[in-house]
Amino acid sequence: MPSAVDPTPKAASAVELEPGAPSDVDLMLGIQSGDADALSQLYDRYNGIVKALILRIIHNETEADDLLQEVFMEIWNQAKNFSPQKGKPLGWMVTLTRRRAIDALRKRQAYARAAERLQAEPEQQPLAWVENVTEREVEAGDTRVLMAKMINSLPEAQQQVIELAFFQGMSQREIAFHTNIPLGTVKTRLELGLKKIYDGLKELKDEL
Amino acid sequence: MSFEEFQNCARLYVIGALEPEELQDFEAARKQYGSAAEDFINQCYGLHEAFALSLKPAKASDAIKERLMSMVRERSQGQSGSHPA
């Protein structure tokens, strides 16, 4: 049986830290013990990434700010459920954020409108997922730029289905319906795209 | 289901894109491959991190943090003051 290889970076944090700064796990353990300052530091470190993810899903600045606050409140309330053995704090936060944002999207009945907008978008603005990345930026080693470059390197058809599945929470059938692509093709594109990103993360692991 | 097929399904599973009829086979394979399967699923959550990190960080209103910390302090005080005498 093949062994699983952790493709994710081994750094103490997904963002660059000042020397002596507590790791993400330290902050999560602090939050678990009721240290509000630990939550404050975690917020300062990740509010930009969390809000970007929320905005990507719900496309509304005011709602995104409200949801950002709710997400960090949930981090405070649910910190006891985080286990460093099962994954990294950012992964846990992103999973929680994505679920909350997709729930909000559906609850506010904006789902249909967003889907219609997304259906129209690929023709006008194919895959404005991430900004264009220059070689110079990649050499600078910025984590975001490396991730963006890796995702941008996927064929557009694969980016499209991953965008709909991850950022809009669509099932394979919903994607097939909204894009008029056969279900089997949706599945194949998702599998290939996700595998490439997963393998790309493994390659980046030593650089980050 | 081979382990390679399981890996493909696991990457779909972590982003919630497995269809209901695929879940049954996936869960059976998950049991079959045991801890290797659980390790792989946990590692697949790194995909979530990658997608989030690929986005340009967005600026949040300063008032959000103030409101958040105020709520946290209120809740903490409420809990510490709620012990029975």
Written overview of the protein:
The complex is a heterodimer of chains A (about 210) and B (about 80). Chain A is mainly α and about 210 residues long. Chain A folds into two domains: about 20-110, RNA polymerase sigma factor, region 2, helix turn helix motif (Rna Polymerase Sigma Factor, Chain: A, Orthogonal Bundle), CATH 1.10.1740.10; about 110-208, Winged helix-like DNA-binding domain superfamily/Winged helix DNA-binding domain (Arc Repressor Mutant, subunit A, Orthogonal Bundle), CATH 1.10.10.10. Chain A has ten helices and no strands. Chain A has helices at about 25-30, 35-60, 60-80, 90-105, 110-125, 135-140, 145-150, 155-165, 170-180, 185-205. The radius of gyration of chain A is 18 Å and the shape is globular. In chain A, about 40% of the residues are buried. Mean pLDDT of chain A is about 80; it is low at about 1-10 and about 120-140. Chain B is elongated and about 50 Å long. Chain B has one domain (about 5-80). Chain B is about 75% helix and about 0% strand. Chain B is mostly helical. In chain B, helix 1 (about 5-15) packs across helix 2 (about 20-45). At the A-B interface, helix 2, helix 3, helix 4, helix 7 and helix 8 of A face helix 1, helix 2, helix 3 and helix 4 of B.
Report how far apart the termini of chain B are. 59 Å
Q: Specify the structural class of chain A.
A: mainly alpha
Number of helices of chain A: 10
Number of domains of chain A: 2
The radius of gyration of chain B is 21 Å
Do you know the CATH architecture of the largest domain in chain A?
Answer: Orthogonal Bundle
Mean pLDDT of chain A: 81
Please give the count of helices of chain B.
4
Query: In the residues of chain B, how many domains can be counted?
Result: 1
Class computed from helices, strands and strand pairing of chain B: mainly alpha
Low-pLDDT segments of chain B: none
Provide the low-confidence segments of chain A as ranges.
1-10, 122-141
Share of β-strand residues of chain B: under 5%
Can you write the helix and strand succession of chain B as a string? HHHH
Measured by DSSP, the beta-strand proportion of chain A falls in: under 5%
Task: Report the principal-axis shape of chain B.
Answer: elongated
The major beta sheet of chain B can be summarized as:
none
pLDDT averaged residue by residue of chain B:
88
| Integer-rounded radius of gyration of chain A | 18 Å
Largest sheet of chain A: none
What is the number of E strands of chain A?
Answer: 0
